[in-house]
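Renewal narrative, Specific Aim 1. Our central claim is that a sequence can be written position by position from structural information alone. The example that follows is taken directly from our test logs and has not been curated for this report. It begins with the structure tokens describing the chain, in the order in which they were read.
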């Protein structure tokens, strides 16, 4: 059995960021083999991931990057179980590592991002699993990317909600400023789509049926149910689709009217909203 010194423990701790006692235990189990000890620590992270798979992750941190030319945005949200973990340095450092990897590789999906291999030979997924082993909590990644004529972003003050919004027909308007206003609207009002054409057919059918049932419960004649339901659907579009919503900073304007007032014909091509715990 190899003698495990304090220097050995400190070396492994520097290599992995794991706790002192965890490093000592791993080195003892690995009989002083540093690579084997690293594997042991990684497996510990996987065990925690498996054990806590059903736990709720309602805390975390959101980070965003918009390219210099303003045509692409990337947003990562790493969720954890407790507020205290979301504030520790190695958690925030991991969020930045993930965002940097997304920008560097132009990852198009969460799966692609998780598979990115870093210079240390570990994938992003392995780095997440490693941190789970160190902090003892479940971590869950959400990733969004958006390309448009101009992309604007916004992160809410709680660092748990973020938005990317794509604008087109920007003209001479200040895309960053108006885009930020629209992104704040998206965080606050949670639209389901850009406009009614973006609402999926299943949602439309459900809203029509709900409208009919409500009218029926109010004693309305069967012959009027369809018309009443269509009226309720139009109200749904006004409240739940971005361009038709009233602007929260000035309810005399819809978002469509706000954009058109800044540059004739400017509109939203797409948006991505990410929220941790909401």
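The sequence written for that structure reads:
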């Amino acid at each position: 059995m190899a003698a495990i010194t304090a220097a050995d423990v400190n070396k492994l701790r520097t290599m992995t960021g794991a706790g002192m006692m965890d490093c000592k235990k791993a080195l003892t189990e690995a009989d002083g083999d540093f690579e084997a000890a690293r594997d042991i620590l990684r497996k510990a992270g996987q065990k925690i991931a498996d054990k806590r798979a059903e736990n709720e992750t309602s805390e975390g941190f959101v980070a965003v990057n918009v390219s210099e030319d303003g045509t692409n945005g990337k947003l990562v949200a790493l969720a954890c179980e407790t507020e205290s973990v979301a504030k520790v340095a190695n958690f925030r450092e991991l969020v930045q590592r993930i965002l940097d990897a997304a920008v560097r590789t132009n990852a198009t999906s969460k799966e692609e991002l998780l598979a990115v291999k870093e210079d240390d030979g570990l994938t992003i997924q392995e780095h997440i699993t490693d941190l789970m082993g160190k902090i003892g909590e479940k971590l869950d990644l959400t990733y969004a990317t958006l390309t448009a004529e101009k992309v604007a972003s916004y992160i809410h003050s709680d660092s748990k909600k973020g938005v990317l919004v794509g604008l087109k027909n920007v003209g001479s308007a200040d895309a960053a400023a108006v885009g930020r206003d629209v992104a704040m609207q998206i965080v606050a009002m949670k639209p389901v789509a850009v406009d009614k054409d973006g609402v999926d057919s299943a949602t439309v059918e459900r809203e029509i049926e709900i409208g009919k049932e409500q009218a029926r419960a109010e004693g309305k004649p069967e012959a009027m149910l369809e018309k009443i339901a269509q009226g309720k659907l139009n109200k749904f579009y006004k409240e739940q689709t971005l361009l038709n919503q009233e602007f929260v900073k000035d309810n005399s304007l819809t978002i469509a009217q706000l954009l058109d007032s800044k540059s004739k014909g400017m509109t939203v091509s797409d948006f991505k909203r990410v929220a941790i715990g909401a």
